[in-house]
Amino acid sequence: MRSMKRLQEQKNLELVRRIEQILKGFGVSKGDQIVVGVSGGPDSVCLLHLLKTISEHFTIRFHIAHLNHLLRGQESTADARFVEDLGTEWRIPVSVESVSVLDLAKQKKISVQVAAREARYLFFERVAEKTQSRWVALGHTADDQAETFLLRLLRGAGGLGLSSIPPLRKITGIGGPGSHIIRPLLNVRRDEVLDYLRTRSIPYREDPSNLKPLYRRNRLRQEVVPLLTSHYNPRLVETLCRSAELLREEQEFLIAQSTEVLSKLQMDSPPSGIALNLPGYLSLHRALQRVVLREAILRVRGDLVGITYRHVEDALELITRRRTGKCLNMPRQTCLRLLYDRFWIYPPQAEDQVASERLEDLTLSIPGEIDVPPLGFLVRVSLQEGYSSSDPRHCAAFDYAKIHPPFSIRARREGDYFFPSGRAGKKKLQDFFVDQKIPRHERDRIPLLTASEGILWVMGWRLDGRFIASPNSQKVMVVELKQRGNS
Length: 487
Hints:
The protein has 16 helices and 22 strands. The strands form five sheets. Strands 3-2-1-4-6-5 form a six-stranded mixed sheet, sandwiched between helices. A five-stranded antiparallel sheet has the order 7-8-11-10-9. The chain has a five-stranded antiparallel sheet with strand order 12-16-19-20-21, with no helix packed on it. Helices cover 44% and strands 20% of the residues. Strand 10 and strand 11 form a beta hairpin.
């Protein structure tokens, strides 16, 4: 019996040393302050005690943070009281707050689990800011990591989702620059946690809902993982954690690459959001396209909550089809719209700002080049002998004998019409915009190339068929749209 106790005590000491090395690997230094998220359950209580033990010679300070979700009535109140008493007994300051997660979920129209997570992390940020802490430590274990991996695999996640719970994650807006969430127990098994608490007689709270197979994670923990462990892989948890770590390293490499690519693709954008060069983006490998798109969305809205594989694939389909003016609405008030040679990711309120930027009248010289703000491209005009074919989205060729100055670029006006190529008769410009499903707020920004005869080109959309150059044309006016900085 004594040998068993000595063996367990040795394991406990080894666990303390492991966690200390993990902290140093994260970059935790002597004198640092750490906010510890403590629910009262075994994992967070074990983490707190380990950190307290390490602090006896490593000189780090702590502050306990506990959020009462008000989901379990008196049990939730008892959990909060337990954490407060633990802080008093161990002489660690405690911050406790309460929030109605049910009300938050209804208000934001999200699940209770997502609402609870959001409320918890915002609370941790507030406490870290108040205490000027560089770190927020959470008690997720290797078993949590393996369960998360399986849940996301069954849901159909890609590499980013399967990398699961990160051991170290930088967060902005708390505790000054360089603040991070750390998970020191992510390579520690739940059995190790329970053995540590049992042999040191450390009390903790047990959430009864964790024992009910009502939630997918509980059912996975109680039924699926034991089945897979006993019949397929006795080291299943370690294997899944290793897979998550490998995928995380690969994703970190891809994200680093995407950051570099994103800076090269970024163009002058409308007032809010990010605009990316469309041809450059389409030249990327499909896998990198996904990562760059996610990184761009992350920069615009600050997180990727609610962005699923389906949203990313819908966005890629829209971008690949290159339909100027088309818009995709994504979760959390995020829009993606194609604008000629770029696509724009932005919050919807930015459309009001765009709508106010009506295109001003500009006069064209032949030959010559002119900048067209706020659309972000140059218009180059030249004369050449003989016929020239063209791509009507980015280039147009007109029979110079059929048109006369002044030549200008302007926005639409009341009563505008033209003779769209490929169809007989004239068409009101307003009807053309409606047929093409161009949003109202975009219509004043679509440039029109005009001559004394009227509209020659709804630029990026359709030519007037009366003036297009043909093999019989002796002199041709060529008008090209060029991205700024391109030759």
